[in-house]
Structure formats: C-alpha cells, structure tokens
Amino acid sequence: MLAIPVSEISHEKVAPVFDGCTTVLLFRDADGEIKQSSEIFLLYASPSDYLRVLHEEGVITLVCAALSQEAMSYGESLGIRIIQGVPREVQKALKIYRSWWAGQQ
Fold first, then answer.
1. Which of 17, 54, 60, 91 is deepest in the core (most CB within 10 A)?
2. Residue 13 domain-assigned?
3. Does residue 28 form part of some domain?
4. Residue 92 is assigned to a structural domain of this protein
5. d(CA 36, CA 66)
6. Which residues of 22-31 are buried (b: 16+ CB within 10 A; e: fewer)?
C-alpha cells in the first residue's frame, strides 16, 4: 500500500511537510493501476505516531514532499520505504512513484 500526505486545503496537493499533515491518502495497486482506497485523518499526534498508524494499515511506501530526519529514520526502521522531494501535485507524485517502482522491478 502507498501513502501520500495531502494538504488540508486540497487533497490534490501533497502536504508540504509530512510531520505536520493531518490527512493521508492510501492507494492500492489494482491490476497495474494505482487507485485510492481510503484516507486516514491524523489529528493531534506526533510524526512517529502517524508512521506507526500507517505501518499498522499496511503501508509499505510513503511518498511525500518533505519530512524530518527523525521521522525518516523511524519510518525506515518500521520498514516503510520513503520517497521524498516530490512535486506538490498528487498526480505528479504518483507518476514519480510509478517510475521509481518500475526501476525496482
């Protein structure tokens, strides 16, 4: 499962920093297509709590614009692959994920 933190204002925009986001969109790969499956609201918790929830939900990849070094280290310790530095548009972030994933095959 793939997670992308999104802006509070528009779910079409990637949140500028994972550590302060409140909503994460979850995507599943269905027959070669990545489709949104659900969203999680993360209120009043630390970035490590957010990452723990994502891990419990089965997230294996987090695609984000930025996150703190502490959050990155903790996420990787949970086994979550992190792709950061993506553009702020969710659709562009998904394209980067697809390209990254194709390179892993």
1. 54
2. yes
3. yes
4. no
5. 21
6. bbbbbbeeee
